[in-house]
Amino acid sequence: xxxxxxxxxxxxxxxxxxxxxxxxxxxxxxxxxxxxxxxxxxxxxxxxxxxxxxxxxxxxxxxxxxxxxxxxxxxxxxxxxxxxxxxxxxxxxxxxxxxxxxxxxxxxxxxxxxxxxxxxxxxxxxxxxxxxxxxxxxxxxxxxxxxxxxxxxxxx
Length: 156
Description:
7-stranded antiparallel beta sheet; Protein Transport Mog1p, Chain A; about 20% helix; globular; 3 helices; 9 strands
């Protein structure tokens, strides 16, 4: 599925990294159908797929990380409860939520900046997470919006 409404924002992020939109990668999780697009040059190193099929992880040589995944909502979180839980784990400096989605960002305990978007569908929570050292704020801050907005979660 093509997300043409995201093309201008993703093209800007890619241009900042010296890539063309044709070099964007779209990952679709084979187990849950969670998908998101990202500039492959920004996260060139793919980790091996986890055995449970929850999602994928990509890394950059400079310490940035991208995680696209889904998980069973075993604790029956709604967006407000999920944001409250994240506040117990990380230093959240921004949060926003709606009826079936939430966004949180801030600082991880290791000092890295993080930005996470969640979509609630049925008994699953789909997510995209971007984490990077504060020294890399400029290039990665420009990628956060386009990558996060490319997150798709199929009905289940």
